[in-house]
Design a protein that fits this description.
With 338 residues, the protein is an alpha+beta fold. The chain is 30% helix and 20% strand. The chain folds into 2 domains: 8-195, 2-Layer Sandwich (Fructose-1,6-Bisphosphatase, Chain A, domain 1), CATH 3.30.540; 206-335, D-Maltodextrin-Binding Protein, domain 2. It has helices spanning 8-19, 24-43, 49-52, 68-80, 147-150, 219-229, 247-257, 279-292, 323-336, and strands spanning 86-91, 98-99, 109-117, 128-136, 159-165, 169-174, 179-185, 190-195, 206-208, 240-241, 260-263, 296-298, 318-321. The strands form 2 sheets. An 8-stranded mixed β-sheet has the order 2-1-3-4-5-6-7-8, sandwiched between helices. α2 (24-43) packs antiparallel against α4. The longest helix is centred in the first third of the chain and has 20 residues, at 24-43. It starts with 7 loop residues before the first helix and ends with a helix. It binds 2,5-anhydro-1,6-di-O-phosphono-D-mannitol and magnesium ion (MG). Magnesium ion binds at residues 92, 114, 117, 282.
Length: 338
């Protein structure tokens, strides 16, 4: 074997040696890697559910088949709850915080995740992903953590990342010292370093937004999108529109090639006037990744990582990607959206 091949496990180990510690954090990360492999295997069989047994139905072995997002949620919870390193979890799929069962010891870390983002795309075989965010606990003692441990601002994140289930499965993460991506080699079941030290171009050529909502956006957002396509835009023209409708996939492409992803606030659903995406499970972890890669994430008015969360399922406008593009959007938003 080529001695320069860096597996994700090796990377985790080398980081631990570099920064010291008892390996508690490494074991949280290793369990996320393990869960990612399980979910990846299941996602790759997604097109067969109609044949092997559908959601809510029983399959040919007489077992109930779970929806893929509920399945992924259970995989991540069960991979993390017994290791004695986690004190509390939260998931986009669960209304309340997830406590560690009494029989297991509790640890120092808080883990939050969106177990399967973009799952409405599953039936069409479109890329989907998992997004995760890790914090140190704030609560005292060695018992369960609480909701305040989960409501820390994004700048306090200890680590964050995502897994994209696509033509290949890719695990991208940061611990605050750059961003690295690893591709799963299905033949040996290992993630191999394939995108070392990812840097997002300062300016991109891609914009990603659900333009069908144009009439529901605020004025500043409409002006910004008009501007990208107009002759006034002398910086980089034309921008290409790329929108998969699967956040992890749209984000990952823009991270590699440069670009801006926008899910701004709109008036489409008066119950969700602040956009659709969740601060804790989607915006914060991706904001941490993008900043570590040299990009920026904003609501249009303020830095995502500076927001003090109020509740577990809070939604925020999310504008994220190449730094100069996001800063330019902010100018339009601050002028005409507020
Ligand atoms: P989900 O968490 O219910 O899967 O929804 C999040 C998804 C994102 O992946 C994607 O960016 C967005 O919803 C697309 O929404 P829309 O169809 O409104 O453009
Ligand atoms: Mg989601």
């Amino acid at each position: 074997m080529n001695e320069n091949i860096v597996t994700l496990e090796r990377h985790i180990l080398e980081e631990q040696r570099k920064y010291g510690g008892r390996g508690d954090f490494s074991s949280v990360l290793s369990q996320l890697v393990f869960a990612a492999k399980i979910v990846s295997a299941q996602v790759s069989k997604a097109g067969l559910v109609d044949i092997l047994g559908n959601t809510g139905d029983t399959n040919i072995q007489g077992e109930e088949v779970q929806k893929l997002d509920a399945y992924a949620n259970n995989v991540f919870i069960n991979a993390l709850n017994y290791i004695g390193r986690v004190c509390v979890m939260a998931s986009e799929e669960e209304r309340d915080i997830i406590l560690i069962p009494d029989k297991y010891p509790k640890g120092e870390y808080v883990v939050m995740f969106d177990p399967l983002d973009g799952s409405s795309n599953v039936d069409a075989g479109v890329s989907i992903g998992t997004i995760f965010s890790i914090y140190r606990r704030k609560s005292k003692g060695s018992g369960n953590g609480d909701v305040e441990d989960c409501l820390q601002p994004g700048y306090s994140q200890y680590a964050a990342g995502y897994i994209i289930y696509s033509t290949s499965t890719i695990f991208v993460y940061t611990t605050g010292a750059g961003v690295n991506g690893f591709t799963l080699d299905p033949a040996v079941g290992e993630f191999i370093l394939s995108y070392p030290d990812i840097r997002i171009p300062e300016r991109g050529k891609i914009y990603s937004i659900n333009e069908g909502y144009y009439n529901y956006w605020k004025k500043g957002t409409r002006e910004y999108i008009d501007y990208l396509k107009s002759d006034e835009n002398t910086i980089k023209k034309p921008y290409s529109l790329r929108y998969i409708g699967s956040l992890v996939a749209d984000f990952h492409r823009n991270l590699l090639y440069g670009g801006i992803f926008l899910y701004p606030e709109d008036t489409k659903d008066p119950k969700k006037p602040t956009g659709k995406l969740r601060l804790l499970y989607e915006a914060n972890p991706l904001a941490y990744v993008v900043e570590q890669a040299g990009g920026y994430a904003s609501t249009g008015y303020e830095r995502i990582l500076d927001i003090k969360p109020r509740d577990l399922h809070q939604r925020v406008p999310l504008i994220i990607g190449s730094k100069l593009d996001v800063l330019e959007y902010e100018k339009f938003a601050k002028r005409n959206n507020m």
